[in-house]
Amino acid sequence: MLIVVSGPGGVGKGTIAELLVERHEKLWLSKSWTTRPRRETENEEAYVFVNRKEFQEAIEAGVFLEWAEFHGNYYATPWPDPPEGYDVLLEIDVQGAKSVTKQGLECLMIFVDAPTIEDQADRLRGRGDDEEEVLLRIREGERERNDARELGAIFVINDDLDRAVSEISSIIYSNPTKE
Ligand code: ADP
Ligand code: 5GP
After folding, report:
1. Which sign does the torsion angle of CA 101, 105, 108, 111 carry?
2. Ligand in nearest proximity to the CA of 5
3. What atom of ligand 1 comes closest to residue 91's alpha carbon?
4. What contacts 24+ positions apart, CB below 8 Å, involve 102-109?
5. What is the pTM of this model?
6. Are 115 and 157 in contact (CB under 8 A)?
7. Is the CB of 23 under 6 A from ligand 2?
8. What is the pLDDT of residues 24-49, one digit of tens each?
9. How far from 77 is each of 106, 117, 126, 134, 163, CA to CA, in Å?
10. By CB count within 10 A, which of 29, 97, 116, 157 is most buried?
11. Which residues pair with 33 in a beta bridge?
């Protein structure tokens, strides 16, 4: 099974994706590539951090299932290579989700959102995004919500983190716990 979690920047989808793979043994989280510099608050393992030349070479070598530009940086999902028997979780933006469906891949599409735009802005500021990035991500969020509706994504509000993770777990497995 292929599960795509998307949503506007700062709503908590990265945090949710990490918790989902902790909770479900047979769920494999794809690691994206990016040309964006690593944030100070960010783990070295958050992405495969590369320069533009390396990114371009990987496009030419057919490494990616999809790639997209976002605010001047490039992001890509490599073709998934999970261990046998694992479901694949992609945490990507809506453009990427569109590409996945255009490729004819069947997937469960989940769109995570914050309870309000103010919550989204507070979360972005809390993680250290500057005001320009906060505004861009909020503006982009409007378009992403519309695109997600058109894609038929299932909307999940990340109000309380644990509750949202349980809701997504039950959507995926009809069972909120690992056991
Ligand atoms: P995204 O991957 O959607 O850009 P992140 O996972 O980086 O978002 O989360 C943005 C910030 O919001 C992080 O600091 C994270 O700890 C925080 N966060 C995530 N979920 C919640 C929640 N339910 N309530 C409050 N803060 C949250
Ligand atoms: P950030 O810079 O905040 O980590 O991510 C910016 C945006 O890029 C987010 O909306 C995130 O979901 C998206 N993103 C992360 N990885 C990928 C990917 O592999 N492909 C695509 N299309 N978008 C991605």
Report:
1. negative
2. 2
3. 2
4. 103/65, 103/66, 105/2, 105/65, 106/2, 107/2, 107/3, 107/4, 108/1, 108/2, 108/3, 108/4, 108/154, 108/171, 108/172, 109/4, 109/6, 109/148, 109/151, 109/152, 109/153, 109/154
5. 0.92
6. yes
7. no
8. 999 999 999 999 999 887 889 889 99
9. 16, 27, 27, 24, 27
10. 97
11. 48, 76
Rounded Cα distance between 37 and 51, Å, is 9
Measured between alpha carbons, how far is 120 from 114 in angstroms, rounded to an integer? 6
Q: What percent of the chain has pLDDT over 70?
A: 97
With tokens 């945090």, the residue in question is 15
Assess contact for 121 and 138: CB atoms under 8 A: yes
102-146 confidence digits (pLDDT tens): 988 999 999 999 999 999 999 999 988 999 999 999 999 999 999
Q: Confirm or reject: Cβ of 100 under 6 Å from ligand 2.
A: no
* Closest ligand relative to 112 C-alpha: 1
Q: Which of 36, 120, 127, 144, when mutated, tests ligand 1's pocket best, judged by the most ligand atoms within 8 Å of its CB? A: 127
